[in-house]
């Protein structure tokens, strides 16, 4: 018997490997409206996480939209203390939901953020600014980061958009400079992470005359930026569904 035939024979059948990791709960499945959870197991896991996060974060009888976004950030990091560092300015949730319902483009700093943003529940184009300067010509010319160069090159399309930065403080600072020159996105989601300018760039974002969702300090990252955008999509979808029901009545 050849090695190839032996290897094929030793591979178990797919059915022998499939196993649920949680007990499927029909009630949780029924209550799940998140577009990213598409199977019964995924819906059960997601809703179980939401219930845990809800109990940790929600202070009043009814959760606020800000608490909704915060819950998702806590789930994405597995860190309940993230709730203490979240910041929202200038009716950020309302601005973000409106932009998504209007199909505004979503500009992101890196492809990991682009990959994480849900493809369902909205008509927004998600654009990674690294594609704006693919050969890094502008970045090299001015000696700046590729993400900063990408946002600068997209400056004529940022007005009214959603900017989501999960990695690069330099990109956040570049966006702030453009805002100072009159270019205004509809919303900035800024959760850049690290020890060089991460805390400072987010503080700078909060000073801008633009709605923003940020976190304080050096923590942050792609999962948080993605969580914020995806929860805004979920909120926008729910508003549309609610409006439809009201009109039908």
From TrEMBL:
MF terms per GO, please?
A: cobalt-precorrin-8 methylmutase activity; precorrin-8X methylmutase activity
Pathway note = Cofactor biosynthesis; adenosylcobalamin biosynthesis
For this UniProt record, the keywords arranged alphabetically read as follows: Cobalamin biosynthesis, Isomerase
Record's protein name: Precorrin-8X/cobalt-precorrin-8 methylmutase
Is Electron transport one of the keywords?
Answer: no
The question of whether Isomerase is a record keyword is answered with yes
- Family stated for the protein in its record: Belongs to the CobH/CbiC family.
Organism of origin is Methanococcoides alaskense
């Amino acid at each position: 018997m050849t090695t190839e035939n032996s290897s094929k024979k030793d591979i178990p059948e797919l059915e022998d490997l499939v196993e649920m990791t949680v007990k499927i709960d029909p009630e949780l499945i029924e209550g799940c409206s998140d577009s990213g959870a598409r199977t019964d197991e995924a819906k059960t896991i997601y809703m179980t996480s939401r219930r845990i996060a809800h109990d940790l974060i929600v202070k009043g009888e009814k959760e606020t939209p800000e608490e909704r976004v915060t819950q998702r950030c806590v789930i994405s990091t597995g860190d309940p203390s993230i709730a203490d560092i979240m910041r929202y300015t200038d009716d950020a949730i309302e601005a973000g939901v409106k932009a998504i319902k209007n199909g505004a483009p979503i500009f992101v700093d890196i492809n990991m953020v682009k990959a994480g943003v849900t493809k369902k529940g909205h008509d927004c184009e998600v654009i990674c600014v690294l594609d704006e300067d693919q050969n890094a010509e502008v970045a090299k010319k001015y000696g700046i980061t590729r993400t900063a160069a990408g946002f600068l090159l997209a400056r004529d399309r940022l007005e009214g958009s959603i900017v989501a930065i999960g990695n690069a403080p330099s990109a956040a600072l570049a966006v702030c400079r453009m805002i100072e020159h009159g270019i205004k996105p509809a919303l900035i989601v800024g959760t850049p992470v690290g020890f060089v300018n991460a805390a400072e760039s987010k503080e700078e974002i909060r000073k801008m005359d633009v709605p923003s969702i940020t976190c304080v300090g050096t923590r942050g990252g792609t999962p948080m930026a993605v969580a914020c955008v995806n929860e805004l999509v979920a909120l926008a979808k729910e508003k549309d569904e609610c409006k439809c029901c009201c009109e039908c009545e």
